[in-house]
Design goal:
The complex is a heterodimer of chains A (273) and B (293). With 273 residues, chain A is mostly helical. Helices cover 74% and strands 0% of the residues of chain A. Chain B is mainly alpha-helical and 293 residues long. Chain B is globular and about 75 Å long. Chain B has one domain: MetI-like (MetI-like fold, Orthogonal Bundle), CATH 1.10.3720.10. In chain B, helix 4 crosses helix 11, helix 5 packs across helix 8 and helix 11 runs antiparallel to helix 14. Chain B contains 14 helices and two strands; from the N terminus they run H-E-E-H-H-H-H-H-H-H-H-H-H-H-H-H. In chain B, strands 1-2 form a two-stranded antiparallel ribbon. Classes of the chains: A mainly alpha (273), B mainly alpha (293). Chains A and B meet through helix 1, helix 4, helix 5, helix 6 and helix 10 of A and helix 1, helix 5, helix 6, helix 7 and helix 8 of B.
Chain lengths: 273, 293
């Protein structure tokens, strides 16, 4: 049995190494000078804590700007998705009306339509509305999430109707029922939905690439792509790695903090379909 | 009372409107655009209606389209690999040892990291012929350095390895969630009957995991057919189109060659392929279920 445990740890160590070495290499490279990068054989550790890659990143490229753009877009998208999903989820789970099942089927069907199918018409629509190079070009198409509606509906189904009826008997209006009874219970589902939406929005590439063409409107992935092109010149290699380091930190921290909830959410939505 | 009856509709109206405007209408409009010769610069109503010309030229004349399809078939090779490895990794991550959460999080990290950043770390940091880590390791072992992404024969497998690495942890977590829903009683009962570890895996784990395997299979197939970021960032579909995917070619067709009609036709063909494969997988896995128990 001890031998088995040792084997498990040995395998886990290999897995951890396979998963962390690219990140470690990224951080180490971000502290190297151009000479260190061009010298063979490559030294694994940087000679000193050379911070000028980070300085160049902020002074020569609009990196801080991209950071703010990403923060604004991801935050607004997250808030809107939570709002629309909660509203739709509540109505679809807790209110009785004609056509409810048809509407829910519509949401499920929408989940089946891959994103790329809508790219060309949506690009033309956003362009004709004059929204290119604005935050709204990214936010508006993704402010309703079929996954989010599905998640919130499934979650609302777990809230007993008796609880809502009791509040109504006590004299709560429909809005009060929502704010005093339903919303406080929603917190765990909101964390799952909020974290996954924020991360997906922060990491999104193809759609922002199409609708954000001006450098000052770039999100972090778009700026990293620009740095990647610049890094064809080895002088920018360290700057690229500095950008990657700063650009990947937010989602990794959020993901680590909410890891247990994300896994619970996967069990909740992924497997009960 | 009548106002109460209207409430659900009023609440849902903005959301349904959004679905119609940004999903259903584009979906339909895309079919119409695929029958047009349209550069996207002139208004839609001025575009010339060319019937099935876009489909015909794609399927019969466009070599790059078929190259992209062949590459996609290669990317699809990653599907069984990722499912096999993902299942193995899930069994490992299911062990109850101290610190297991850290290892679960480790494999999950790339899934929540920007694809662009990871692709650049691998392209510039690992696969680079001169200052990449992989060639440094090869040089230290006395082996010849490789061109990796700069070679038409190595670029596609190199990107495939990267993509499997990126998504494996997420797949393993899905399998893990499935594994944890199998009641311990079943394994205990199997032990009483004298089942070996392999028997338990074959006759308890696999059959009970079937719905999860089907779900993962569908997710991975759909994902594999939509690959864009990695070849765009790492190789721009090259060298010599060896890593071109259909979504990447569609992007070039629509936004660089300004041929919206042909790009829309490509989108529809890809959608049809995804749709057909998904149905096929559901049918095959449901049928094979008869043998699994």
């Amino acid at each position: 049995m001890r031998g088995f445990k040792l084997l498990v740890y040995a395998l886990l160590a290999i897995v951890a190494l396979a998963y962390w070495f690219p990140y470690a290499w990224m951080v180490l490279s971000s502290f190297k000078t151009t000479e260190e990068i061009l010298t063979l054989p490559i030294r694994i550790l940087p000679r000193s804590l050379y911070v000028y890659n980070y300085v160049f990143l902020v002074t020569e490229f609009p990196f801080l700007n991209a950071y703010i753009n990403s923060l604004v877009i991801a935050s607004l998208t997250t808030i809107l998705v939570i709002f629309t999903s909660t509203l739709a989820g509540y109505v679809l789970a807790k209110l009785e009306f004609k056509g409810r099942d048809v509407l829910f089927m519509l949401v499920l069907a929408m989940q089946m339509i891959p994103f790329f199918v809508t790219i060309i018409p949506n690009y033309k629509l956003i362009a004709s509305l004059g929204l290119l190079n604005t935050y709204w070009a990214v936010i508006i198409p993704s402010m309703v999430s079929p996954f989010g509606i599905f998640l919130m509906r499934q979650f609302m189904l777990t809230i007993p109707d008796d609880l809502l009826d009791a509040a109504r008997v006590d004299g709560c209006t429909e809005l009060e029922v929502l704010f005093r009874v339903v919303f406080p219970l929603c917190k765990p589902a909101w964390i799952v939905l909020g974290v996954t939406t924020f991360i997906a929005s922060w990491n999104d590439f193809l759609w922002p690439l199409l609708v954000l063409r001006k450098k000052e409107m770039y999100t972090v992935p778009l700026l990293l792509n620009l740095l990647g092109v610049a890094a064809g010149d080895p002088r920018y290699y360290g700057v690229l790695m500095a950008g990657n380091t700063l650009g990947t930190i937010p989602t990794l921290i959020i993901g680590a903090l909410a890891f247990r909830r994300i896994v619970e959410g996967m069990r909740f939505t992924g497997l009960k379909m | 009372m009548s106002q109460d009856k209207l409430t659900p509709y009023i609440l849902l109206l903005p959301i349904v409107a959004h679905i119609v405007v940004f999903w259903l209408y584009p979906f339909a409009l895309n079919v119409y655009i695929s029958f047009l010769y349209w550069t996207g610069l002139e208004p839609l109503y001025k575009a010339k209606f060319v019937y099935l010309e876009n489909y015909r030229s794609l399927l019969l004349e466009d070599e790059r389209f078929w190259t992209a399809l062949r590459n996609m078939a290669y990317y699809a090779l990653g599907v069984p690999v990722i499912i096999g490895l993902g299942l193995g990794l899930a069994l490992l991550l299911n062990q109850r040892v101290r610190g297991i959460t850290f290892f679960r999080m480790s494999t999950f990290a790339p899934y929540i990291t920007a694809g662009v950043a990871l692709a650049l770390i691998w392209q510039a940091g690992l696969y680079h012929p001169f200052y990449g880590l992989f060639n440094e390791v090869l040089r230290r072992l006395g082996l010849p350095p490789q061109p990796w992404l700069r070679s038409p024969s190595q670029a596609l497998p190199a990107i495939l390895i990267h993509i499997v690495w990126k998504h494996l942890g997420y797949i393993a977590l899905l399998f893990l969630a499935g594994l944890q829903q199998i009641p311990q009683d079943y394994y205990d009962a199997a032990s009483v009957d004298g089942a070996s570890a392999w028997d338990k895996f074959r006759y308890v784990t696999l059959p009970l995991l079937r719905p999860v395997i089907l779900l993962v299979l569908i997710l991975v197939t759909i994902g594999a057919l939509q690959i864009f970021t990695e070849p765009y960032v790492m190789t721009m579909g090259g060298p010599a189109d060896s890593t071109l995917t259909l979504v990447l070619y569609m992007y070039f067709m629509a936004f660089m060659y300004m041929n919206m009609g042909k790009a829309a036709a490509m989108v529809n063909i890809l959608f049809a392929i995804i749709f057909a494969l998904t149905i096929l997988e559901i049918k095959v896995l449901r049928r094979s279920g008869a043998y699994w128990g």
